[in-house]
Design a protein that fits this description.
Elements lengths: L2 H72 L4 H27 L1 H8 L6 H7 L2 H17 L3 H26 L4 H30 L13 H37 L3 H20 L3 H19 L3 H28 L1 H9 L2 H10 L3 H16 L3 H26 L1 H27 L5 H26 L5 H21 L5 H8 L5
Length: 508
């Protein structure tokens, strides 16, 4: 494993993801202040439909390109790369165009019969033209991950994010006074335009980079069989899961209304949890998601050449790093939830939900990284089957619990589904890689360490009587992490050789 290249790419992608998600969180705060919780709830419903269409357009194509290009590089069959990518581009464009046309034609039906709110129809029609461009960008993204040019992908995502925000800021002042329907249009116009322009950006970078792989003898390869083995199972499974996720998002406001909440209150509660709280507790996961995406080609390369020891080494190191990091984040959100709610959204309600959902952080973060490794090990069908089971479980639980328990039913559903999905994925990875989960060093010691550090800082801040604010919250987080890492080092939970693995080039 080329650790130096991996770490360099991870740092680039993490830094870019940090900037992107920081901007995204700030944009979400700005957006919620401009349009209100009810509009955020409606936007989540629109996003669920759009996500389903985008998943169908892109889910299989990116990973197909990454997997096959990585295999060609490992086997030094460079001449096949450009031909494969072009065929996948054509394939993805046709699917994206089809999805865009279908979304546009059926937007009235979706708004009236499925989402039961005609205010979403115009936004769905505006989003439809973005789908073919998303499919094209996804193909290029798969190529860039395979050739370890993550800076290109990072730049594209940052470019897209900034465009979306700028367009929203330009339009919101004009459209918001016309009502929620047009305020939502300000958001989705930014999404569509940014997707189109970022696609052009990716095309230019691809044409510059792929030239070095264009030389060599043209040899035939079984493109269709490769697509069948990777693309279609991924697309079918991911689309099924996305469809179930869409059903879930539609059922939540509907279930809350049956519980007794008004339409406005149901959309507001839905917007607070899904549109405000979940992005916050998911934010630190960007540090792990970068590694997760980069693990796909690394694992795929090791798998292609049958390097079992390398696979086990990577999995062991990454699982430990992920567990230690996730426990720290979970503790910080739990102990300082009130401060997060007040500082970010000026809302005690959001702080309460952050505290309630904080225990899920450990399993959520582990699940994302494990999914990335499973994809690289040709275990995409296992990974997707678990996710489909998870989505089906969520839909059933929402249907049963939301009308009876309201928000409490939604929270119970989130706990049950997260535990189920993550444990299934982790169990599969441990079996495939033959790694043994070290409960003492990966879980128990980190949990005791973050509990000690969190309580210590909490008591200290109470004694000092410091007023809550962003500076105090930053100080609390910094002190907690310093104490946490110190305890881990003293208990030898983190060892010198593991630090050197990160800092130096070590062969797995």
């Amino acid at each position: 494993m080329k650790v130096k290249v991996f770490i360099k790419n991870a740092c680039v992608l993490t830094a870019a993801s940090f900037v992107n998600m920081s901007i995204g969180i700030l944009f979400r705060i700005y957006m919620s202040n401009k349009v209100g919780p009810e509009a955020i709830g409606l936007y989540q419903l629109i996003s669920s439909i759009y996500f389903f269409a985008a998943t169908f357009s892109t889910s299989g194509i990116s990973l197909t390109v990454t997997r096959l290009v990585t295999d060609f590089i490992a086997k030094k069959e460079y001449n096949k790369i450009n031909r494969l990518t072009k065929k996948c581009l054509l394939f993805g464009t046709v699917i994206g165009l089809t999805c865009g046309v279908v979304l546009y034609i059926f937007s009235n039906f979706i708004g009236k019969a499925i989402l039961k709110d005609t205010r979403v129809i115009l936004s769905l029609k505006i989003l439809a033209p973005a789908l073919p461009f998303i499919a094209i960008s996804s193909t290029y993204r798969g190529y860039f991950y395979a050739v370890r040019k993550v800076a290109y992908t990072a730049g594209e995502q940052l470019f897209e994010q900034i465009l979306e925000i700028v367009i929203f800021m330009i339009l919101i002042g004009t459209l918001a006074p016309k009502g929620i329907e047009y305020a939502l249009c300000a958001i989705v116009i930014g999404t569509t335009v940014s997707e189109i322009l970022s696609c052009v950006y990716s095309y230019a970078l691809y044409e510059l980079d792929v030239k070095k792989y264009s030389k060599g003898e043209n040899k035939e390869f079984r493109f269709i069989s490769s697509i069948i083995k990777i693309f279609f199972p991924l697309t079918a499974s991911a689309s099924l899961r996305a469809g179930l996720s869409t059903v879930e998002n539609v059922l939540i406001p509907s279930g809350l209304k049956k519980y007794g909440a008004s339409s406005q209150k149901a959309l507001s509660s839905y917007g607070v949890i899904m549109g405000m709280v979940l992005p916050v507790i998911s934010f630190p996961n960007l540090f792990l998601l970068s590694f997760s995406m980069l693990l796909i080609p690394e694992m795929s390369e090791a798998y292609a050449v049958g390097h079992k020891a390398g696979i086990k080494c990577i999995a062991t190191r990454v699982l430990k790093i992920t567990s230690i990091f996730s426990v720290a984040v979970m503790g910080i959100f739990y102990f300082f939830s009130s401060e997060f709610g007040r500082v970010i959204y000026s809302s005690d309600e959001s702080g309460m939900y952050i505290k309630i959902l904080s225990p899920l952080v450990l399993l959520m973060y582990l699940d994302k990284v494990v999914d990335g490794m499973l994809k690289g090990l040709n275990e995409q069908l296992s990974y997707l089957s678990y996710n489909i089971l998870d989505s089906a479980t969520r839909v059933v639980l929402i249907f049963i619990l939301a009308p009876i328990l309201g928000i409490r039913g939604i929270l119970i559903m989130m706990f049950v589904s997260t535990i189920l999905n993550s444990l299934l994925s982790i169990r599969r990875l441990l079996k495939v890689t033959q790694v043994k989960f070290d409960f003492s060093n990966w879980l128990i010691k980190p949990l005791l360490s973050i509990t000690f550090s969190g309580l210590f800082v909490k008591i200290l801040m109470t004694l000092l009587s410091l007023n809550s604010g962003i500076l105090v919250l930053t100080l609390e987080i910094a002190l907690s992490l310093i104490i946490y890492l110190t305890v881990l080092l003293l208990t030898e939970c983190v060892k010198r050789e593991e630090i050197s693995w990160v800092l130096k080039r070590v062969k797995c």
